[in-house]
Design goal:
The protein is of the alpha/beta class. It has eleven helices and eight strands. The strands form two sheets. A five-stranded parallel β-sheet has the order 2-1-3-4-5, sandwiched between helices. A three-stranded mixed β-sheet has the order 6-7-8.
Amino acid sequence: MFRRKPISVGIIGLGIIGTRIASHLRSAGFAVSVWNRTPKPEPNFLGSPAEVAAAADILQLFVADGRAVEEVLEAIGDALTPHHTVICSATVGRAATLEIAQRVRERGARFLDAPFTGTKGAADKGQLVYYIGDDDDTLAIARPVLEAASKAIVPIGKVGDAAVLKVVTNLLAAAAVETLAEALAIVKAAGIAPETLPRALEHHGVRSPLMDLKLPALIEENYDTHFSLKHMLKDVRFGLELGAQLKLDLPVTAATADAMCQGMTLGWAELDFASVMKRYS
């Protein structure tokens, strides 16, 4: 009986999300190769990005920033060919996304702008949400890979547009958690039990799943990393860059960035971005 060859996928970047995506893809029957700058005891861990490209048709990138993506592409070199599809799931901003897309296409390969929303818990459950910027129907090729670890795939527009939407949704999250920390600080300073705040928010219009996730952590002062402060600050700075390019004043975003910068100087970079609460401890 004829058996279709499994789709071969290379995951580059094995942080909180990449590690979990690789696991979901294996469970879904994909042939998965992986690489990370710091070696990790993962199945089929290869010696370089070029080796991953040689083993896989679809490459999905979960590295930290635009510079890391550029370094990966340099390391892949001539191993990147027209039969490859590159899915960029790193949050790198619009300008870097467009530059990376051009470099990939110069090699004849396909490129998909596919940042995601969802942190460690969503990745564990295979419930990420991908935002898609697609100029040339590359999503049709990448969809089975994306579906293996997501609950929704949201087309946004052309390449670069999804990168913008990813940034602005993270601006909302960063500002919301900063404001939540400030609200909780006021409650505590006023001598009111912290547990009163979630009860007050239970039927309030401002309540959100993000608040439900982060408020217990703020109350418990539990800053285990779901999304690190350093990575959220990077995204907030992308928002400020977009604002400058578009001649928009973004005072809340600027204030949020300042608050997060304080946390960075105090050594909280690797903690969850909810650690902005620590300055009130």
